[in-house]
């Protein structure tokens, strides 16, 4: 027969374990919304009827992209998401030194991390990062980016 103390310990462990797992996942996502978003340039738009996506980057990021080299650590790319003709939020793709090592190899997208933000530029939800990672893995030869060609072709 289990003692009351053991039952309590088991219940605590069962309750805390999922929370620890969620904390570990959140700790590995370093993507942040840039404070200087007003300096970003719209370099591509993807219209899909009442929905669209707008791709933004700093002018120096766009200039660097034309070198053909992978974008450097510190780069942030922003995707504005529109639905029913209204801006609904943002996705940020943020690159850091060694950030890929914080993600399981089968989910890794180089050193890029992804995050969704609301219109208030606060984290909206973290679950979306799994979808971002799985999709962007197919663009490995383009530094995990789908918009690199549009970025390189952009003329101010």
Describe the overall structure.
The protein has 156 residues and is an alpha+beta fold. Helix content is 29%, strand content 27%. The protein contains 4 helices and 6 strands, in the order H-E-E-H-E-E-E-E-H-H. The chain has helices at residues 4-27, 59-65, 128-136, 148-153, and strands at 41-48, 51-57, 76-83, 86-95, 112-117, 123-125. It has a 6-stranded antiparallel β-sheet. It is globular, with a radius of gyration of 19 Å. The termini are far apart.
Quick structural gist:
The chain is α+β, with helices and mostly antiparallel strands.
Secondary-structure topology with pairs:
Layout: H1 4-27, E1 41-48, E2 51-57, H2 59-65, E3 76-83, E4 86-95, E5 112-117, E6 123-125, H3 128-136, H4 148-153
Question: Quick one: overall form?
Answer: globular
The unreliable regions are 1-27
Biggest sheet strand line-up: 1-2-3-4-5-6
* Total of helices: 4
Number of DSSP-assigned strands? 6
Distance between the termini: 75 Å
Rg for CA atoms? 19 Å
């Amino acid at each position: 027969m289990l003692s009351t103390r053991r039952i309590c310990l088991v219940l605590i462990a069962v309750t805390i374990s999922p929370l620890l797992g969620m904390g570990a996942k959140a700790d590995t996502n370093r993507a942040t919304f840039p404070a200087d978003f007003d300096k970003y340039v719209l370099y591509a738009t993807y219209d899909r009827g009442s929905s669209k996506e707008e791709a933004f980057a700093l002018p120096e990021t766009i200039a660097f992209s034309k070198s053909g080299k992978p974008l450097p650590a510190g780069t942030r790319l922003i995707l504005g998401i529109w639905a029913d003709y209204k801006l609904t939020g943002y996705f940020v793709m943020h690159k850091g030194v060694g950030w890929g090592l914080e993600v399981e190899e089968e989910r890794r997208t180089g050193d890029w991390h992804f995050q969704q933000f609301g219109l208030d530029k606060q984290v909206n939800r973290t679950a979306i990062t799994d979808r971002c990672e799985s999709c962007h893995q197919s663009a490995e030869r383009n530094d995990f980016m789908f918009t690199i060609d549009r970025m390189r072709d952009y003329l101010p």
